[in-house]
């Protein structure tokens, strides 16, 4: 089963998935994104596509609940792929040396993340990123 392809069939992009335990229940959570934003219909459509497939090929062992959710406007970035999917957005990054940097993500090349802030380009190596998240300027 190719989760990425199934998301594209539903007209959305896979951002991430995780297995969490909340109140003693296993939840398999899928985060999606789409140009212009994700709405409830997008989540329902993907859920309807995945449910019969997961009945035959469960993504986890044992009983679980499937949850499809928007990745959100403000979300954490923990993989290079997350950074690649967020090009053009505003980021706040904390480095391993506790330096705080923010700017617009302009590109990702190899292990390097490039931000633009006040006309200057900042290059940060992915291994130096302790925390990163997108943010919206209101």
UniProtKB/TrEMBL annotation:
Record GO cellular component, one term: cytosol
Keyword Cytoplasm part of the UniProt annotation: yes
Subcellular location: Cytoplasm
Major localisation: cytoplasm
Domain of life: Bacteria
Stored SUPFAM superfamilies: YhbC-like, C-terminal domain, YhbC-like, N-terminal domain
Domain spans labelled Ribosome maturation factor RimP C-terminal: 77-138
Keywords: Cytoplasm, Ribosome biogenesis
UniProt xrefs under InterPro entries: Ribosome_maturation_RimP, RimP_C, RimP_C_sf, RimP_N, RimP_N_sf
A biological process term (GO) from this entry: translation
Domain Ribosome maturation factor RimP N-terminal: from-to ranges: 3-74
Membership in a protein family: Belongs to the RimP family.
Function: Required for maturation of 30S ribosomal subunits.
PANTHER family for the chain: RIBOSOME MATURATION FACTOR RIMP
Name of the protein this chain belongs to: Ribosome maturation factor RimP
Species this chain originates from: Campylobacter vulpis
Gene (name only): rimP
């Amino acid at each position: 089963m190719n989760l990425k392809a199934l998301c594209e069939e539903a007209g959305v992009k896979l951002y991430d998935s995780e297995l969490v335990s909340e109140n003693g229940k296993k939840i398999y959570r899928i985060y999606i994104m789409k140009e212009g934003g994700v709405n409830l219909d997008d989540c329902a459509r993907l859920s309807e596509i995945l449910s019969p497939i997961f009945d035959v090929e469960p993504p986890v062992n044992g009983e679980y609940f499937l949850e499809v959710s928007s990745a959100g406007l403000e979300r954490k970035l923990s993989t290079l792929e997350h950074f690649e999917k967020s090009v053009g957005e505003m980021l706040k990054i904390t480095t391993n040396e506790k330096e705080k940097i923010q700017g617009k993500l302009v590109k990702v090349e190899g292990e390097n993340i490039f931000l633009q802030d006040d006309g200057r380009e900042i290059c940060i190596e992915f291994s130096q990123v302790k925390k990163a998240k997108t943010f919206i300027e209101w």
